[in-house]
Amino acid sequence: MPRPKQSRVEQVDVEEDEAGRRFAIPGAQALSKGLSLLTLIAEAPHPLPFSELGRYSGLPKSTLHRILQTLIDFRLVRFDELSQTYRLGVRLFEMAHKVWSEFDLRSAAEPELLRLRELAHETTRLGVLEGQDVLIIDQRDHVQAMRMANGVGSRLSVGATAIGKALMAYRPPEELQRYLDGTSLKPLTPNSILNPREMQREFDLIKARGYAVSIEESSMGVSGVAAPILDHRGEAIGAVSIAGPSFRLPPDRLHSLGRDVIEAARRVSGNVGETFMSISTSVTPSHAADRDVRVAVPHSAFLGEGPHWIKATQSLVWVDILGPSVNVSNLATGDTRTTPLGELVGVVVPRRRGGFVAATQSGFRALDLQTGEMAPLASPADTYGRRFNDGKCDAAGRMWAGTLALTASPGQGALYRLDTNGELHEIEAGFHICNGMAWSPDSSRYYLADSGARRIYAYDYDLASGRISNKRVLIEFPQDEGIPDGLAMDAEGHLWCAMWDGWAIKRISPDGRVVQTIDLPVPRPTNCAFGGENGRTLHVTTARIRLSAMQLAAAPLSGSILAFEVDVAGAPVGEYGG
Fold first, then answer.
1. 485 is catalytic
2. HSE on the CB side for 436, CA within 13 Å?
3. Are the beta carbons of 454 and 479 closer than 8 angstroms?
4. Model pTM?
5. What mean pLDDT is predicted for residues 451-469?
């Protein structure tokens, strides 16, 4: 994990008297040191022991001890006896509740509603949940926009509007379940969602995307996009939306505005809510794209992922996690066949005996690509609020896949192994975003990317038993290089890593050095897989989710499959043997 920032306090606060003489403010320096220490504890990536607090703060041991004891006395800090580390105290949470109880949502949201109105040239709204309805508490109509009939004080359907779905998706689980169990979903238009299970999937998709869309679900001819305003617990206290006529807000524009409503909602709450989901990226890359990079499959995937090369048909199987769908692209003909799925899907791999296996939101599923029908194979005991992400099979036919929280909150990811006999094992927990994986050509090493930690880990691997051991950090990337995402292994034992928000693919040596960088024309490459006739074509999946209209204009190939030739072939990739 990255080290905490140094928090040394050198400056002494002073005041001047009427004669202009400067003097120190009694206690101000101690207060400044205490607040700096509190900030250090809050921003550290993990709880710190006394020795590390001393090193990072630069305070003498005696001073550090006195300040810590004072903070503990005021319940601003607590000492964990088991781990011998210091953590934030409960008094801070009590203060946070007080802040939110006095929070003026309408005043805080007003400038963002005005900004969104001028950005989209459409009506913007602020809504809150009241019973089973959405109450509109502020609305800003654009002079050129269609004036919305439902203004301030009106009530809208929770399940048929973008603003309502954004609010409900982020309510506590028990409240959400009560809504699904006790509400009769009404058909306001032919597009309204009427099945509670479909509505649950819609809520999960909203949490994975970070925003909600409604395409003529409450009124024909009217569509919208919305994002929740989250409090310090990650629960929705309101939502902001853009709504207007469908001919001016087609699906592509709604999704491109998704990032803008997320950003507006975060600003309203002062960025205290769920901010783990990435919405910012450089509009332009630091280098021009490599001239050898080409478009292999023109597409507009939300979150393309999980590429797997099928040599027999010269095709690439890949998923759009947020489609959700599975795609088979024939690189010889240029055709892509898309199979929609009923739940979020992280990866699909071929099965040795025929067919495919998908790692979906709810677990491992046998998949018929012709019909889209899935049959359960194995599932973790608890998948609520999580989904499977990337995965691959080892040389023995075991399937490995990792999870993350739908909201991308840290510490919720886990790594699983599905054996060929159908038994499922949780191998390791506590990851932020369990992501790309690969094995060395001789299967003696296993590699795993945790995107949230910006790290790629290396493990020793025992192919006979499927056990991993001796975990260590292979490489950790600085923030300005992007986030490690999907991985592919070449025949020389080097990793190829897609750098989310990094506009690049990086080749990494077995000892953790970046030895080559391929610059791309898109900011969000997600994964890569070797293929082609000689196995030396690297295919790259990409994403356009949460990119603004300006960013998509700068990177119009986002969501397509890119490809380029390399000097070394890829290592073999396994299929599921069960």
1. yes
2. 30
3. yes
4. 0.78
5. 96
